[in-house]
Design a protein that fits this description.
567 residues, alpha+beta, Immunoglobulin-like, 5-stranded antiparallel β-sheet, 3-stranded antiparallel β-sheet, 8 strands
């Protein structure tokens, strides 16, 4: 009896830890999110440009982008961007809120499917949140465009919950079809929802007799086919993507890729083969759970409660299969991309809740021994330990991603004065002329904060409130060969004392001005820069260095200057 009293404490502890796991992700988004478009986001500049001219059309929002027809995410980008001057940190907040919606749906589904006593339900919910709010999804938490990755699972989980509500069958079908359309036209894997929701509506949900009518089944199938027909009308496979037939020629590699996407959600050891083994184990445990349910299919209560979790698991497995077909040509290591874990983590979530249901069903008949309780407790501890072990890995990736993007933003702000090849970074796509054009469009619209620098004269960028504190130094400049020079020194940010977002190098003009001619944007307080003086007219010349803050577009003069004489 005393032991049962202690077990009841698990519920409030799990609730607090679940809130903490979500709160930490919100903290990381606030701390490491950078307000600058990144990679594919630059292709959406046209939306805002056309909107400002009254030329934006539904067709443009619906148009294929890579493999996707992401109409609904595009609507969110445009609406939210117009309201916030396209502060992409708000898109990151939407991603967080979608994850919270999914977590809330998981909690409600756990209640509807009777997964156990309150403390058991809360324990499983906490374990699920270790995946849903894992920093191992670092690329998606800090990349606003990934709303398209979160909308499908938000729709799937909401539809599974709706299936158990007592609303009229017709209303339930209309709402679930609306969710299916949003999911379909958000991400290419979103169409899986049509296959997943209907079995739950027909066999698990309340008022399910409505969904067993031949007419309703025919309407659902017709709507599914119509949605797919619209999606693939005029569809073109992206030319840069590998052939889809590779999986037929390399089936073993395909299996490894599939296991990699699943195993990456639970990295016990940060080694490819270990991740593949974990992914394989997760998949076969899921299949074994399904076989157990099928073996006891006459138990209608077990089937009712297990079916939504089985469908949630198939969402992850089906998406992993689609990723395998579409991405195998990039190599097995590409299966470990952080962004894919937002799809496949729900395989682990499904396994957790199915395990709870099956163990409850099994021990209801046979009872449970002390040894079995110890084994189950050990598995829970092992799972929590594994997630805690890779938590810091995810946080480190968040920090690294933040550093790369903030340095990239520094280079972007100088795009009108520094050649692209001298400040290569992640926000630039391959076509520099295009990024130069789109960055200036955003700047004209007032959608870059801070705006692009308007002068290459460092005195115009200098923070006039600069204190006497040292922000670093220019230690030396020396000649290498053929008009190539190398400089090094130190540079720190005035507020954090961490590495400067960029180091700007300038030369002195006869009238005493310092003019920007190149920059360095690597993540280290100690910096080095190799450069040429082709763009510098003076000889001899005085070179100075400046720490640059990408969030304010202000420069801070570093100690020291170097006189250079051209050979």
């Amino acid at each position: 009896m005393k032991f049962d009293k202690y077990l009841k404490l698990i519920a409030p502890i799990a609730a607090i830890l679940s809130l903490a796991s979500a709160g930490l992700i919100l903290y990381f988004i606030n701390k490491y999110g950078v307000n600058v478009p990144y990679n594919d986001q630059w292709e959406y500049v046209g939306f805002f440009d056309h909107l400002s001219q009254g030329m934006l059309t539904i067709e443009e929002l619906f148009r294929q982008h890579n493999e996707y027809r992401q109409f609904f995410p595009n609507v969110i980008y445009v609406a939210l961007g117009s309201f916030t001057h396209w502060n992409v940190r708000y898109e990151m907040l939407v991603i967080f809120l979608l994850a919270c919606l999914v977590a809330f749906n998981i909690y409600r589904l756990a209640g509807y499917t009777q997964v156990g006593k309150p403390w058991q339900k809360w324990l499983m919910f906490f374990l699920a949140n270790l995946f849903i709010f894992s920093p191992m999804q670092w690329e998606n938490w800090l990349f606003g465009v990934q709303i398209e990755y979160f909308l499908p699972i938000a729709c799937v989980s909401t539809g599974l919950v709706l299936a158990f509500t007592r609303m009229p069958g017709l209303l339930k079908m209309i709402l679930c079809m609306a969710l299916a359309l949003i999911s379909t036209f958000s991400s290419i894997n979103g169409f899986i929802i049509w296959i997943l929701l209907f079995p739950v509506l027909a066999f698990s949900g309340t008022k399910n007799e409505y969904f067993k009518k031949g007419t309703i089944i025919a309407i659902w199938i017709a709507a599914t086919l119509e949605a797919l027909a619209i999606y693939f009308s005029g569809y073109q496979k992206p030319g840069a993507h590998p052939s889809l037939s590779i999986v037929l020629h390399h089936p073993l590699d395909a299996l490894f890729y599939f296991f990699g996407t699943l195993g990456n959600t639970l990295r016990v050891i940060h080694y490819l083969w270990a991740i593949l083994v974990v992914g394989g184990m997760l998949f076969f445990v899921f299949l074994a759970q399904i076989l157990y349910v099928v073996w006891h299919i006459k138990d209608k209560l077990l089937l009712r409660n297990a079916l939504p979790w089985v469908m949630l698991g198939w969402y992850a497995m089906g998406t992993a299969a689609m990723l395998t077909v579409g991405r195998l040509g990039f190599g097995t290591y590409q299966s470990l991309a952080s962004r894919y874990t937002s799809f496949t983590l729900y395989g682990a979530v499904a396994v957790i809740f199915l395990a709870g249901l099956i163990l409850q069903h099994y021990f209801r008949v046979r009872g449970i021994s002390v040894k079995q309780k110890i084994v189950i407790a050990a598995l829970v501890v092992l799972l929590v330990g594994a997630k805690v072990n890779n938590y810091q890995v995810g946080v480190n990736e968040l920090k690294s991603f933040h550093a790369a993007i903030i340095h990239a933003k520094a280079g972007l702000l100088c795009i009108n004065y520094v050649p692209h090849e001298e400040c290569a970074n992640k926000v630039y796509p391959a076509n520099f002329a295009e990024i130069h054009r789109t960055a200036n469009i955003l700047n004209r619209l007032g959608y870059l904060n801070p705006p692009l620098i308007r002068s290459d004269v460092m005195q115009d960028l200098e923070d006039m409130q600069q204190s006497a504190t040292s922000y670093g130094s220019l230690d030396t400049v020396f000649y290498l060969h053929d008009n190539v020079y190398k400089a090094w020194g130190t540079a720190m940010m005035p507020n954090t004392k961490g590495a400067a977002d960029a180091v700007l190098l300038s030369y002195e003009t006869p009238d005493g001005k310092s003019k920007l001619f190149t920059l360095q944007n690597t993540d280290s307080i100690r910096w080095t820069k190799t450069f040429t003086l082709d763009r510098v007219p003076q000889n001899p010349m005085v070179i100075r260095a400046w720490a640059f803050d990408a969030n304010s577009a202000k420069a801070y003069k570093l100690k020291g200057m170097q006189r250079v004489v051209l050979p």
